[in-house]
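forwarding from the other thread:

> can someone predict this with guanine?

sure thing
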Amino acid sequence: MQLLDGKAVSAHIKEEIKKQVQEHTWAGKRAPHLVAILVGENPASKAYVGSKVKTCAELGFESTLVTYTQDVTEQELLEKIEYFNQNKEVDGILVQLPLPAHISEQKVIDTILPSKDVDGFHPENLGKMMLGQASFVPATPYGIMLMLQHYGISTAGKHCVVIGRSNIVGTPMSLLLSRNTDPGNCTVTICHSKTKDMAAICRQADIIVAAIGKPHFVTADMVKDGAIVIDVGINRIASDATKSGFRLTGDVDFEQVAPKCSYITPVPGGVGLMTICALMKNTLLANTLHTRP
Ligand code: GUN
């Protein structure tokens, strides 16, 4: 069993990005600038946005963090997005999801200018991705593709079972893995809450991508020997062993599943770090497009 080490791979990719930013700024162009908007007090969202802003600083990007309390109106949020849409010094805008129930996530996503939608959630970017056209690709599936590519894992012809059909991970992941690309060319099955006998389907998988947000959902009996297991889950569960009173765990029962795998991602230290890397790559791409002579 080999660990797919998000820490090592993301460090490598971040070094590459850093160099590109330096070359870019030495050539007199402005550094990439990401705006992150956080609404409310969700501790996981706060932690993710904090990591994104910190990584910006590490790579020589500009960043602006805008925070709102839970009761911000939809109108106020949309106006702020419009303001950053018009701002020529801003390359990427992300609004951390989920949002409070009184705000339409789709309206928020639709308001972000597609050329600044570094999350790749806007219908224009998702549509282009479906058509195989150049677009911003959602960060988590993009990060997983970068991870597979880094390890030179051959995916062509493999049966990949994606568990979860969210707009952010499961659905774009299934599309990327089925495309005629490398990595890609998988035969993809999507499993979800209405799937019958999920364990039997998962046992047929050469690659499992677990993205359901349920701790330890994938158990050893669902995994065939030699499978590749990608764990997207970042679940907070109570723990007496940490100062914070919680620890992070994935959607996969790592201890039981890992010995059966050829490759597996740990949590933490796997997909989460790749997601941030992919977001940074998207922001750098946006900056390159915005600062073209
Ligand atoms: N919530 C969970 N994942 C993401 C993500 O990749 N981007 C944003 N904006 N919100 C999220």
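The first strand starts at residue 2 and ends at 3. thats all i got for now
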